[in-house]
Design goal:
By secondary structure, this protein is of the alpha+beta class. The protein has 24 helices and 22 strands. The chain has a domain of about 325 residues: Thrombin, subunit H, CATH 2.40.10. The longest helix has about 30 residues.
Length: about 650
């Protein structure tokens, strides 16, 4: 009974489920309000929802919303492309971009999307002697633009083949000004209430045969097998929601010792180093508009995980996850021993021994990634000849000094890099050595001293990989820990089966397509403080402050609010006429889910996922159904901004983007 109770308490609801196996969850989904079938979600025999969802540029999700390749994702997912297309003269980051015709759509160089063609359990094929490489290579030959990989689930106790079709001609159609798409900036990131219009619009192009093709002026809009209808009926607390996307990484089954390392060592180190880097970059951005644009994407990339880690530490402390996992591991070993599986006690003991051995290598590799690996060891001639480089030099020099000093101070677990130590000794300090290395990188990138230092860093990196037996640090792993985790997770699944809860265990996220479901819901933020699940334009106006970059909204938005000129997007909320902006739901999400479609009970698009609440960021390790919430921009706000700010109402009307209420 204790084992069963522990599993119910630990079960993450709603989970991240493999689409091809969603039939195992469909009864639960329908009991919670879903009105479609498993075949509507995933099918290889007919068009299904999977055909309207894409992996966007290798790290986000996007969704098709028209029969002519129109795609929605987050503003922050398209940020790099928008930045690359921006200049001081055409500052699309600041002012937004709205293509008035197909001819005005801008090629987003380097951006690609992937559609899942199918997924297949190949565990038995591997056991029969086939290799993952041969299975994937055979799948790639099945069609033009095909990509394929074999991915492990449950620490390699199962393997699935994922076959994708990649399209490389992707063009920017629309992006709101950053004062809408990034409203609140780093201040509001991960925070509720949220008022960010985090969306951007792209279009996928293909050859005349609808097949993948390199960019060409005569390519045509891609014709998808399926696209989502959009509902403007809105959401209410308790409404069913489903998210379909590519979550990047969760760590549900890690050892309690790993939780302690994350909470007390790893996250605090990374937070401290990134805080200092962000302070330097932010000061430069405030000083020069060109530097603001140049460092915009870099600042956003650094800040996103930085703030997430802060919330993660607070969440792990609040839930007392380390102690709870310790208790669960002891209960597991005892229960499995009683059931005749006494070997799991030793599996846990060996996991702890291997983690203790590997920990210094994890830490040093993370420290390198946050310090010495964040700067260039030689700028290209093109970069050095760019007129902006002279204005960047003080910033770049300061970043070198910072990360060299941080590495020197924090490298406490493994022997240092000899070239680095010799350079510090020769120059008198880490800061002085950083100055020398920067000058060489900027003026003499082929200098032997640069090559030697870079070689020393790479040599230590190779030694760490050799000691861990893997190049991946996913879930703080090593080759031996992977073997032990496979045994451990097999035991957890047996334990779940003994308790009648096997169906509640889903594999960790690994950037493969997943389904999560739940409902629109607020939560109790603190004693006596309930956070409602919906925000509105009134909240944007309340935050509006022209003196603060993150809260300086476009004048057009102020004017629309003052005149209450909302057109068809107006709603009544708390007795006021306003426009909905964002909402909360209980779907389990993580990195990679950015841009994912939020769907209603009939599979219609009602929002675009873009964040979690700050008190939810520990959910990669422990999901708390009472407080973990994902944040989405309401599709009605997306359409309002397109229509009333961008003036591109044809995107709503001519392309039939939405279905009217009722």
């Amino acid at each position: 009974m204790l084992a069963a109770a522990a599993l119910r308490t630990a079960a993450a609801d709603p989970g991240m489920w493999l689409p091809s196996l969603i039939g195992q969850r469909i009864d639960d989904m329908r009991a919670k309000g879903f009105r479609l079938t498993a075949e509507d979600i995933y099918s290889v025999n007919r068009a299904s929802m999977k055909d309207a969802v894409v992996l966007f540029n290798g790290g986000c999700t996007g969704e098709l919303v028209s029969g002519e390749g129109l795609l929605l994702t987050n503003h922050h997912c398209g940020y790099g492309a928008i930045q690359a297309l921006s200049s001081v003269e055409n500052d699309f980051l600041t002012h937004g971009f709205w293509a008035r015709s197909r001819a005005e759509e801008l090629p987003a160089e380097g951006v690609y999307v992937r559609f899942l063609v199918r997924m297949e359990d190949v565990t038995d094929r591997l056991a029969a002697g086939e290799t993952a490489q041969s299975i994937a290579e055979a799948a790639r030959r099945e069609g033009k633009g095909y990509r394929a990989s074999v991915e492990p689930m449950y620490y390699g106790t199962q393997h699935f083949l994922f076959v994708y079709r990649q399209y490389d001609d992707v063009r920017l159609v629309a992006a709101p000004p950053s004062s809408i798409g990034k409203f609140g900036g780093d201040t509001d990131n991960w925070i509720w209430p949220r008022h960010t219009g985090d969306f951007s619009v792209f279009r996928i192009y293909a050859g005349a045969d609808n097949e993948p093709a390199a960019y060409a002026a005569d390519n045509v809009p891609y014709r998808p097998a399926r696209h989502f209808a959009i509902s403007t009926q809105g959401v209410r607390e308790g409404d069913f929601t489903m998210i379909y996307g590519f979550p990047g990484n969760t760590q549900q089954y890690i050892l309690s010792d790993v939780v302690k390392y994350v909470q007390e060592c790893s996250d605090p180190m990374k937070i401290a180093v990134r805080t200092a880097r962000l302070d330097l970059i932010a000061a430069a951005q405030r000083s020069d508009p060109a530097l603001r644009i140049h460092y915009a994407a870099k600042h956003a990339n650094i800040a996103n995980a930085w703030k997430k880690w802060q919330g993660e530490v607070l969440g792990l402390e609040r839930l007392d996850t380390y102690r709870r996992k310790q208790e669960s591991e002891a209960l597991f070993a005892h229960a499995m021993g009683d059931a005749g599986y006494g070997e799991y006690h030793e599996v846990l003991a060996e996991l702890r021994r291997e983690f203790a051995r590997a920990l210094p290598y994890y830490y040093t590799r993370e420290l390198l990634a946050e310090t010495l690996r964040t700067v260039a060891y030689g700028y290209s001639a093109e970069e050095r000849n760019d007129p902006l480089f002279a204005r960047r030099r003080p910033v770049e020099r300061a970043l070198y000094e910072l990360v060299f000093e941080e590495y020197a101070a924090r490298n406490t677990m493994l022997p240092a890099i000899p070239e680095f130590e010799a350079g510090v000794a020769r120059c008198g300090s880490a800061k002085a050595y950083a100055d020398r290395i920067f000058e060489l990188a900027a003026n003499d990138p082929a200098h032997a001293e640069l090559t030697a230092l870079k070689g020393g860093i790479e040599r230590l990196g190779r030694e760490i990989v050799a000691q861990l037996g893997t190049e991946s640090l996913r879930n703080f792993n090593s080759a031996r820990m992977s073997e032990l985790y496979a045994d451990y997770v097999t035991g957890l699944r047996r334990w779940a089966a003994l308790c009648g809860r096997e169906g509640d265990m889903f594999p960790d996220a690994n950037l493969t397509l997943r389904v999560a479901y739940g409902s629109v819901a607020g939560y109790e933020y603190a004693d006596g403080t309930y956070h409602e699940p919906q925000t509105t334009l009134d909240g944007i106006i309340a935050k509006d402050d022209p003196s603060v970059y993150d809260y300086d909204i476009p004048q057009a938005l102020r004017d629309l609010h003052a005149a209450k000129d909302y057109g068809r997007w107006a709603v009544e909320a708390n007795g006021r006429r306003t426009v909905p902006v964002c909402f909360l739901a209980t779907n389990q999400t993580t990195g990679g889910n950015s841009g994912s479609p939020i769907l209603d009970a009939d599979g219609r698009l009602v929002g675009i996922n873009f964040d979690r609440t700050w008190r939810s960021t520990m959910s990669d390790i422990e999901f708390d159904p009472a407080i973990c919430r994902n944040i989405s921009v309401d599709i009605r706000y997306v359409l309002f901004v397109m229509d009333r700010i961008g003036g591109v109402s044809f995107l709503c009307d001519l392309l039939h983007l939405f279905v009217r209420a009722g």
